[in-house]
């Protein structure tokens, strides 16, 4: 068995982290003069299809996790923006009530 090391660099973007996901599969090469039984060929095709489905499922799980994090972050921002808008609205209402009250107040001179 051979061990490989993969090195990744994120020098171009230091603001946010990047997540890298990949799968490495070994390939069995068969000489053209070797004959493969039809059942063995079918087993290899099924194994390759199963591996492909497994890889796709893992990718979907990672993508769903990323989308969920994005949606939760967006929901949090919308919530705090709404809270800020409500506070500003109540402050404006209080100022308007105070201003109109003082506008209609009768000044009495003694």
Automatic annotation (TrEMBL):
Alphabetical UniProt keywords: Membrane, Signal, Transmembrane, Transmembrane helix
The keyword Membrane belongs to this UniProt entry's keyword annotation: yes
Membrane-crossing segments per the record: 80-100
Principal location class: membrane
GO cellular component: endomembrane system; membrane
Start and end residues of each GOLD domain: 1-105
Membrane topology annotation: Single-pass membrane protein; Single-pass type I membrane protein
Coiled-coil blocks: none
Pfam families: EMP24_GP25L
Keyword match Lipoprotein: no
Protein family membership: Belongs to the EMP24/GP25L family.
Protein name listed in UniProt: GOLD domain-containing protein
């Amino acid at each position: 068995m051979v061990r490989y090391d993969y090195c990744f660099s994120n020098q171009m973007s230091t603001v946010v982290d990047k997540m890298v996901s990949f799968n490495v599969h070994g390939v069995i090469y068969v000489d053209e003069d070797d004959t493969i039984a039809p059942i063995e060929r079918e087993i290899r095709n099924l194994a390759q299809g199963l591996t492909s489905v497994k890889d796709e499922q893992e990718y979907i799980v990672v993508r769903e996790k990323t989308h969920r994090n994005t949606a939760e972050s967006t929901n949090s921002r919308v919530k705090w923006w709404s809270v800020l808008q409500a506070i500003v609205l109540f402050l404006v209402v209080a100022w308007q009530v105070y201003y109109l009250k003082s506008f209609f107040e009768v000044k009495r001179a003694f």
